[in-house]
């Protein structure tokens, strides 16, 4: 067992020395004349994305505050669900995503299956849960 420990220690030491002496490394060869590459952009903030998608696609019916109610859209009178209600809060995430995906034709809600990506639908769900359900 002692011999194995010594062998591993020797291997790691040699590996470390080899890496430290590697002059072919891009980091070791950087000079002041080297172009500076931009840092990768930050990932999309899902909550901000959800708010934007909601404002663009959902707020016309559900209102910016999610309260819904009686609205007229494209000449149709609708009584839109209040997304802040206990009824909607109790829905599972899958059920809400299903409504966004397939719509609720009998109540005037269109399908967003061909308009929003799965990620955008999840972002909208996150917005609804965070802003209207306090989760």
N- to C-terminal distance: 53 Å
Stated plainly, the CATH topology of the domain at 46-133 is called: Cytochrome Bc1 Complex, Chain D, domain 2
Identify the CATH architecture of the domain at 46-133. Orthogonal Bundle
Cα shape? elongated
Uncertain residue ranges = 25-30
**Percent of residues in helical segments?**
40-55%
Description:
By secondary structure, the protein is mainly α. It has a domain at 46-133: Cytochrome c-like domain (Cytochrome Bc1 Complex, Chain D, domain 2). 48% of the residues lie in helices and 7% in strands. The protein has helices spanning 2-20, 46-57, 59-62, 86-89, 93-102, 118-133, and strands spanning 69-73, 76-80. It has a two-stranded antiparallel ribbon with strand order 1-2. The model is unreliable at 25-30 (pLDDT under 50).
Give me the secondary-structure topology.
Layout: H1 2-20, H2 46-57, H3 59-62, E1 69-73, E2 76-80, H4 86-89, H5 93-102, H6 118-133
Antiparallel strand pairs: 1-2
Helix pairs in contact: 2-6
Task: State the main characteristics.
single chain, 135 residues, mainly alpha, Cytochrome Bc1 Complex, Chain D, domain 2, two-stranded antiparallel ribbon, 6 helices, 7% strand
Task: Tell me briefly what this model is.
This protein is mainly α.
């Amino acid at each position: 067992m002692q011999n194995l420990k010594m062998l591993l220690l020797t291997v790691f030491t040699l590996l470390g020395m080899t890496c430290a002496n590697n002059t072919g490394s891009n980091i070791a060869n950087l000079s002041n004349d080297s172009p500076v590459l931009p840092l990768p952009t930050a990932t999309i903030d899902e909550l901000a994305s959800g708010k934007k998608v909601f404002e663009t696609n959902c707020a016309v019916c559900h209102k910016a505050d999610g309260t819904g109610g009686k609205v007229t859209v494209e000449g149709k009178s609708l009584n839109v669900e209040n997304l802040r209600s206990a009824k909607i809060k109790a829905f599972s995430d899958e059920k809400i995503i299903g409504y966004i995906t397939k719509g609720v034709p009998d109540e005037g809600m269109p399908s967003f299956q061909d308009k929003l990506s799965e990620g955008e639908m999840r972002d909208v769900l996150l917005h609804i849960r965070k802003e209207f359900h306090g989760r």
